[in-house]
Design a protein that fits this description.
five-stranded mixed sheet, Helix Hairpins, alpha+beta, elongated, single chain, Beta-Lactamase
């Protein structure tokens, strides 16, 4: 928009214009200073006169037209009202009207946009400004073009052409001819697209219009692309880019990169296509074109869609939506919502897909876009089919067909009007100028085409009627499909009374007929937990969101219960309230069993891997250490015996003995643990005296007890016995006593006690040792992380003893547990069933 038509410039208005200049410089430098400048302009609004305010409103409106349409319209309206009150010339007001029309149309308010165009046209006539009137006609054509109304688009361009020819306005011809060529190409009329491309090219050369010349090259490239002459297409696009760069026309460079990306898509070289889109995006950001930036990001998502990368497609569609929601362009927002809904459908996230598709359809209804409604209903139908919700799928398929037929009929009518307008144009040109032989002879062809298209229109009207009949037939087919589905289908009313079941439900439940279900409560066919689930979870969720998915339990004819996976939805009445609830489900009882078995198998496999790793760890770390000592000291005695004194020989022998004993104990434990893991230990259960068994193990550990300077007291009663395997439980007691001795400080006491109930017999080994930290207690009996608290270098061990204890106690039908307080001591208890049941 122009703001140079104001008269006097006060010092404050000079500051405003300076800020405006800074703003546009900042815009060219990728927006580095925009926010501060915008804020400054808003602050100056209240402190300047009306002419200064007009500068502010025009500047802000221009800025927001690329960022936020609501704000652009707001400041544009304020600028228009102020311009009228200041009595500015109509040329300035026409510019404002065109600006506002474009933004209202982008925001979905087509009626307002058209009204403003009409006002602009009337002012041009009042001013006798035919150049501006032709420009308004071109803008009016673009308005109809955005709506797909090609007949009115051509009519507006024809009007502009008549004015341009009559008044000999040369500077508008390149743009007009390029637009007419692009319009004919859009309707696949290559012949006329070429004619107007040549006209645009010649006028651009004659009047040194670089932008028009670039546009004609891009149009020629599009024609070659349509004819699949890809080499020629690339030459045209590339030449356009070279000229744009030579002339430093950033907006044309941005546009041309997008065209080149289109070429690489045709060549299926998606990497180069993305590179060129990215180049176009860079220039978009430099120019501050937010709307165009969102379209380029969407274009990038389409490229990833061609590649088959749905996640990347979704990522860029979401980025584009964020920009479009900020700008407020409802048509583009609608497109993004529907694209994202389709992406989520492909990814299997049906809940998000439903949300985005419904939001897109709401916007399409608000802006009366039959094209987007058709597009949205088609995607909803696909979503419902994937969810096996055939009734809804059929409903939205029917809507999709209706809107598709409506669009076909509309397009047929538009084409008839289009060619009628074209015929009028040719007739007028024929009376004022001599046409080429090619254009004169085409008159007959277009009359024939007009007649043919009229017949096509009648055909589509007949087809629409046939499709309605077909819809009724499809409904009957759908009923047959539902009746014979393998899945169970059940419909209940809002009181929980069953109104319909299909044959699939009878097969799954083995009921003889549907009479067992009809008019019965749904709660009669499920257990208490699922009945509560229906009341407290399923029905409230259906009422709130319209959908529910999960698992329930249902009853078969023989009274047994089975697990089902259900998808439920709501059928609503005309007033939007729930009328029926539909459930579609499968019997997944066997699947759940398989899942449980698979889970157990995984746990066994995990345990086996951990066991293997534990064994290798012991072999690698704990066995190699003692063997190193044995080999080292035995080598000294074997090869250098005479170099050492008797006391050295005794010390070496003692070290060899202790390492051998440690290795032997470890190997014994490892062997027993491995046998337990493999299930090769044979048990001989007998009534074993636990008092004697503990005494035997205390005696076996007497040397170790003496060396540590501690005492061990056996407080188990003399005749205290349990039904166990003597050998395996002896190993358990020995390991627990060894750990207690090893981890107890000097001069402390270890006590062994017992307990008996009607159900269990247990013994507990308590020490006053260093204890185990609370965070490690959960891991002491686990293979993967088994470890004990080490507080000095003498407390070495593989952590295997407790694992062995756990396995051997388990084999005897018992349990082992531990209680410990760090720094105070530990209690280890083993318990066995009381076979005598005497407390």
């Amino acid at each position: 928009m122009k703001t140079y038509s104001l008269i006097k410039i006060s010092s404050l208005r000079y500051l405003i214009m300076l800020l405006t200049t800074i703003f546009f410089v900042g815009l060219s430098l990728n927006g580095a200073s925009q926010p501060n400048t915008i804020d400054s302009l808003k602050l100056l609004e209240t402190n300047t006169d009306e002419q200064g305010k007009l500068i502010i409103y025009n500047t802000l409106a221009e800025h927001y037209s690329h960022v936020n349409l609501d704000s652009a319209v707001y400041y544009g309206d304020k600028g228009l009202k102020l311009s009228k009150s200041l009595g500015l010339d109509n040329v300035h007001i026409v510019e404002l009207l065109l600006f506002l029309s474009t933004n209202y149309t982008s925001n979905g308010n087509f009626t307002k946009g058209q009204l403003l165009l009409q006002q602009a046209e009337e002012l041009c006539i009042v001013e006798n400004d035919y150049e501006l009137l032709a420009f308004v006609k071109i803008k009016t054509g673009e308005y109809y073009g955005h709506q797909g109304n090609y007949a009115e688009y051509l009519n507006s361009l024809n009007s502009a052409l008549r004015i341009i020819d009559k008044k000999n306005i040369h500077n508008l011809k390149p743009d007009l001819y390029n637009k007419m060529g692009a319009l004919y190409l859009r309707i696949d009329d290559i012949k006329y697209a070429k004619i107007f491309r040549i006209k645009a090219f010649e006028n651009s050369i004659n009047h040194k219009n670089t932008v028009g010349y670039i546009s004609s090259l891009l149009l020629e490239g599009d024609i070659f692309l349509k004819l699949n002459k890809l080499d020629s297409c690339y030459i045209c696009y590339n030449k356009a880019l070279e000229i744009a760069k030579e002339s430093n026309l950033k907006s044309e460079i941005q546009k041309t990169y997008k065209f080149i990306a289109k070429y690489w898509i045709s060549e299926k070289d998606y990497g180069k296509a993305i590179t060129n889109v990215d180049s176009s995006i860079i220039y978009c950001k430099k120019l501050g074109l937010t709307t165009e930036l969102s379209s380029l990001i969407t274009y990038k998502s389409h490229i990833y869609s061609n590649i088959g990368d749905v996640k990347k497609t979704l990522e860029y569609n979401l980025k584009s939506l964020k920009l479009r929601e900020h700008s407020g362009n409802l048509k583009l927002i609608c497109s993004s919502f529907l694209n994202i809904g389709g992406n989520y459908t492909e990814l299997g996230d049906y809940k998000k897909a439903m949300y985005y598709l419904n939001e897109g359809i709401k916007i399409a209804s608000a802006i009366s876009s039959n094209l987007y409604l058709k597009y949205g209903y088609g995607k909803l139908a696909k979503l419902y089919i994937l969810q096996d919700r055939y009734e809804e799928a059929f409903f939205y398929t029917k809507l999709n067909t209706q809107y598709n037929d409506s669009l076909l009929i509309s397009k047929t009518s538009d084409r008839v009007l289009f060619y009628r307008n074209q015929y009028k144009l040719e007739k007028e040109i024929a009376t004022s100028k001599s046409l080429t032989h090619e254009i004169r002879t085409s008159y007959i062809y277009f009359l024939i085409a007009l007649l043919f298209i009229s017949f096509v229109g009648i055909f589509f009207l007949i087809r629409a009627n046939v499709l309605r009949k077909k819809a009724l037939s499809e409904m009957r087919k759908l009923s047959t499909v539902v009746e014979n589905m393998s899945q169970a289908v059940l419909i209940i009313n809002t009181n929980g009374i069953i109104t319909y079941v299909n044959n699939g439900l009878l097969k799954i439940t083995n009921y003889p007929s549907d009479s067992y279900f009809i008019n019965k409560s749904v709660f009669d066919f499920t257990n208490d937990n699922s009945a509560k689930q229906i009341r407290d979870e399923i029905l409230p969720t259906l009422t709130k969101t319209g959908n529910w998915h999960g698992e329930t339990h249902n009853k078969r004819y023989d009274g047994s219960f089975f697990i089902t996976e259900e998808v439920c939805s709501v059928i609503k009445s005309k007033n939007g309230k729930p009328k029926y609830y539909v459930a579609i489900y499968n019997d997944i009882t066997n699947r759940k069993k398989d899942e449980l078995e698979l889970k157990l198998s995984r746990e066994k496999l995990k345990l086996a891997v951990e066991t293997r790793d534990k064994m290798f760890s012991i072999i690698a770390n704990d066995l190699t250490g003692p063997f190193g000592s044995i080999l080292g000291f035995s080598k000294l005695m074997a090869t250098e015996f005479h170099d050492y004194q008797t006391e050295d020989h005794e010390r070496f022998s003692r070290l060899i003995y202790e390492s051998s004993k440690t290795t032997y104990d470890l190997l014994t434990n490892l062997l027993n643990w491995s046998r337990a893991q493999l299930g090769s230990i044979e048990l001989f259960t007998d009534n074993v005296n636990l008092n004697l068994l503990v005494d035997e193990n205390i005696e076996a550990l007497k040397l170790m007890i003496s060396k540590r300077g501690i005492s061990v007291k056996n407080k188990i009663p003399a005749n205290f016995s349990a039904s166990i395997d003597n050998d395996t439980i002896s190993i358990v007691i020995k390991n627990l006593l060894t750990n207690a001795i090893k981890f107890s400080p000097h001069d402390t006491e270890i006590i062994v006690t017992s307990n008996k109930t009607s159900d269990f017999i247990s013994i507990t080994i308590s020490d006053k040792g260093y204890g185990i930290r609370s965070e490690k207690m959960d891991n002491i009996f686990k293979v993967s992380v088994n470890e004990l608290e080490v507080t000095n270098k003498d407390q070495k061990g593989a952590g295997l003893g407790l694992l062995l204890c756990k396995e051997l106690v388990r084999l005897n039908g018992g349990t082992i547990s531990a209680r410990s307080e760090f720094g105070v001591g530990s209690d280890f208890t083993i318990s066995f069933p009381n076979s005598n049941n005497n407390a």
